[in-house]
Every structure is written in structure tokens, then in C-alpha cells.
Amino acid sequence: MGEQVAQETPKLGFGLMRLPRRGLGIDVAQVSRMVDLFLEAGFTYFDTAHVYAGSEDAIRKALVERRPRESYTLATKLYAAMSPSAKSAKRQFETSLERTRAGYFDYRLLHSAGYEADAVAYGATTLRGFIGSRAPDLVSAERAEGDGLHVVWRRRAE
């Protein structure tokens, strides 16, 4: 990741995994108020994922449709357990772009790429398995095309 990007991105992010609900759906009005407060406080980093039910639609309504794209940073995650190939990884990213209508993602994170023990326990793809699947070639190819993509591999601390 470029040093300039790292310095310009505020260190607090708005995670969209668990959002307030109204009935059976997400309370988009409440999420919109939360987004506004977050931005007013000077923070700009939002984090969603293909597997966060309803979050991509909610962030489209609460942020993307209401704010200029250059005013925020948006990350998504590639869910490793659903991504055994470059083709399925690309499909996840394309679906996320369609749902958010953000135009692009500033960051793509690898989500739930556990170690061998985690894979046995949870049925998830390991980082070794993900890398062996050639899905990272998708990221490398898109980065070579110059879309400004920043890729971060992360694993949640135990």
C-alpha cells in the first residue's frame, strides 16, 4: 500500500457487518444518520463485504447515493471460503460493485482465510489454499490495469 494512501486514510473505520434493523430489514434511515455523524467527525473509511447480508444495499442508499465518491474510502472483502478460483473471486467483486454502485473499491480485503486448524473446524479455505487457487492472479491483473487498487491481506486476531 502506498505511504500516501496509508497516511491519508483515517485510522477508524465504519464496519458494516452488523447494522441497526427495522423489522426484517436494515434501518437505512438510522444507518444514514450514523454515516453522516461518522463523516462529520472526519472519518471516511467504510468496510463492507459480499457476505454481510444487506450491508451493500444499505451503504449504497446511506452513502453512495448521498455523497460524492471522492469523499469516502470504501473497502470490500473477498470471502475466502466462497472463492476457490479466480472466476468466483471476480464474481464476488462484480456482485459487490453492482450492489453498492460505488464504481470501484479502494481496498479489497481477504476475509476469513484461516489457518489449517480453522479450515478443518469451520470448513473455510485456508490462506494457502486461496493462494494456490490462482485467485490472487485476478488482483494482480486488475492492479496492472491501473485501477488504483490497494490489496490488504488480513486475519482477525484470536
Number of strand elements: 7
CATH superfamily assignment?
NADP-dependent oxidoreductase domain
Strand order of the largest sheet: 1-4-5-6-7
User: Tell me, what is the CATH class?
Assistant: Alpha Beta
Tally the helices: 7
Given the helix and strand composition, which structural class is it? Answer: alpha/beta
The gross shape turns out to be globular
Main beta sheet: 5 strands, parallel
Nearest-integer average pLDDT:
74
Portion in strands: 15-25%
Q: How does this structure look, described?
A:
This protein is of the alpha/beta class and 158 residues long. Helix content is 42%, strand content 16%. It is built from 7 helices and 7 strands. Helix 2 packs across helix 3. It is globular, with a radius of gyration of 16 Å. Mean pLDDT is 74; it is low at 115-126 and 140-158. Residues 11-117 form the NADP-dependent oxidoreductase domain. This is Aldo/keto reductase.
Task: Sum up the structure in keywords.
single chain; 158 residues; alpha/beta; TIM Barrel; five-stranded parallel beta sheet; two-stranded antiparallel sheet; 42% helix; globular
How is this fold's topology laid out?
Layout lengths: L2 H6 L4 E3 L5 E2 L2 E2 L1 H13 L4 E3 L7 H10 L8 E7 L6 H15 L6 E5 L4 H7 L4 H6 L2 H10 L5 E4 L5
Parallel strand pairs: 1-4, 4-5, 5-6, 6-7
Antiparallel strand pairs: 2-3
Organism: Thermophilibacter provencensis
Protein name: Aldo/keto reductase
Pfam families: Aldo_ket_red
